[in-house]
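User: Universal stress protein. Structure?
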Amino acid sequence: MSQYTKIVVGTDGSKSSLLAVQRAAAIAAAFDATLIIGCAYYETKEDANKTLRQDSVTVLGNDPAQENLNKAAEAAKEIGATKIETVIKPGTPVEALMAIVTDNDADLLVVGNRGINSLTGRLLGSVPADVARQSNCDVMIVHTVAG
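Assistant: Predicted structure:
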């Protein structure tokens, strides 16, 4: 198994995404790795409405994104992660996560499975499936929702 040094996980503030954060935090603690928690946000309601995919929580504006990151960082600390960074990125969840992975030269991306088995996810793609296809690093899809 690789020695992970930089682990990226996304959050939208949902219970499902916090489960992914907790799993990523446990891995970061085990490897003494840096955990980079990212949150995508839409700058305007019009930007949010342009997306065809509605399988993730829509975060509108960077203030709610920062609140999500604060909550996720606290959850990660409770699990035992000690090196925690947070990043807010405008755009879709896939765009933001891919940018954060690239910008930080991450070696592991952790995402929840929400949307992967939905009809919309099968037809249009889902965040976990899309990042798994696009990522240049290992991707761990955490079982965060049933079905």
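Confidence is low (pLDDT under 50) at residues 115-125. The longest helix spans residues 62-79.
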